[in-house]
Amino acid sequence: MKLWGGRFTKPTNELVDEYTASISFDKKLAQYDIQGSLAHVEMLAKCEIIPSEDAETIKKGLKVVAEKIKAGEAELTEANEDIHMNVEKLLIDEVGAVGGKLHTGRSRNDQVALDMRLYLRDSLVTLVELLKNLQEALVKQAKANLDTILPGYTHLQRAQPVLFAHHMMAYVSMFERDVERLSDSFKRVNRSPLGAGALAGTTFPIDRHYVAEKLNFDGVVENSLDAVSDRDFVVEFLSNASLTIMHLSRLSEELVQWSSAEFNFVELDDAFCTGSSMMPQKKNPDVAELVRGKTGRVYGNLMGMLTTLKGLPIAYNKDMQEDKEGMFDTMETLKGALALFAPMIETMEVKKENMYAAVAEDFSNATDLADYLVNKDLPFREAHAVVGQVVLHCIQENKYLLDLSLADFQSFSELINEDIYDVLSPKSVVNARNVVGGTAKNRVKDQIEQAESRLTEAEAWIEIHEEKVNVLKK
Ligand code: ARG
């Protein structure tokens, strides 16, 4: 007999059981479900809705059920549909009919919203920590490469030289914003929907704030209809996760390019690469490629959730059961990617000489020749034209700017003097970009300093919020 079987005259069709059940994936929520039930039952006793002895019995029973599920000893069945009814059934098996008092003043609709929020807030803290570890690895590479110059690219054509440290710090900035978004979203996730009942509230004199406090929420979701309808916190997570993996996929692409024989700028550690079953010489950047590839599925999960919610009337609709698999999948994909990226970046060998050689063999100092002429009062547009001529000459002669003699230079402009050789050296070119956020060594050092102070802030955030979510696990 189903927990809700009273008004039915025959058993559910087996295919219906199979199709509508969520236990195969929402069993992931088991421990959160039980945490929520423990707080709920304490509130029921405190508000004198059920006797304290019954609440004690239920609490003990719930703890046994939690242990059994953890140990894989509990039987979770499709016949019991989802994690909520499976736990209730296991509880009743454990403590008898009194277990049936647990669901007083509660619906699976507010219960599932609660479980989702408990799961997500926990995972948000883990994600921020993983992002922090990755940023630290990037900062470490930046610090070790404050004198490493490589061509900066636009249109994947050599454009202007930059410090490799500068390039690493660009990613640190991206991941900083990701941390900001995830930690900000925590505030919206961390509200208790419990007490909304099925949709309208409950007739029992419950205390929503008491439950919220027990579970370390920052408050309650005010409107009961909203509390059971809302999954925008899931959409927000899927969107934030999409941005993070988008950043990772760009870094992935660069690692793939840089580790090719054509670039030969970095070598990824053997521990983070895989081989070919046929070609003995191969060493492939599979992790980077796979993260780049998985980005598609993470975006898909966002589009899936948005589409599921589009046009749904409030309050709960069974459609909303579709909120789980995409969220779990995205969470695991992102956690896996971040956990691999931090050590992969940290152990990556940077081939400084190859980067420098690439800078020497290009025209990425051409802008500096133009700027040099501008500083001698030639209008920029004319300077641009002169340098265009110089570059064309070099291409025809198979030379780079620094290969030209002073006489060569002066045949294009009288304004050019001996000091041009220093001005056009890669190091001068880099250090000339001495503006806030520019690639000059001192400016990159400033970026590193600021990033480190924000990493300290992130660490403090993690500590406070770990405490918040861990209280329940004690
Ligand atoms: N398994 C359901 C879900 O994940 C739980 C809520 C079901 N509520 C209901 N009224 N059928 O969404």
TrEMBL record:
In which broad location class does this protein mainly occur, judging by the first location in its UniProt entry?
cytoplasm
User: Where does the UniProt annotation locate this protein?
Assistant: Cytoplasm
The record's catalysed reaction(s) read: 2-(N(omega)-L-arginino)succinate = fumarate + L-arginine
Q: Which UniProt keywords apply?
A: Amino-acid biosynthesis, Arginine biosynthesis, Coiled coil, Cytoplasm, Lyase
- This entry's Enzyme Commission designation comes to 4.3.2.1
Pathway involvement of the protein, from the record: Amino-acid biosynthesis; L-arginine biosynthesis; L-arginine from L-ornithine and carbamoyl phosphate: step 3/3
Single Gene Ontology BP annotation: L-arginine biosynthetic process via ornithine
- Does the keyword section mention Cytoplasm? yes
Gene Ontology CC annotation, any one? cytosol
What does the record give under GO molecular function?
argininosuccinate lyase activity
Question: Domain Argininosuccinate lyase C-terminal, which positions?
Answer: 363-431
Please state every residue range assigned to the domain named Fumarate lyase N-terminal.
6-300
| Stretches of the chain forming a coiled coil according to its record | 441-468
Its EC top class is lyase
- InterPro entries assigned to the protein according to its UniProt record, in alphabetical order: Arg_succ_lyase_C, Argininosuccinate_lyase, Fumarase/histidase_N, Fumarate_lyase_CS, Fumarate_lyase_fam, Fumarate_lyase_N, L-Aspartase-like
What's the family? In the N-terminal section; belongs to the lyase 1 family. Argininosuccinate lyase subfamily. Belongs to the lyase 1 family. Argininosuccinate lyase subfamily.
Q: What is this protein's name?
A: Argininosuccinate lyase
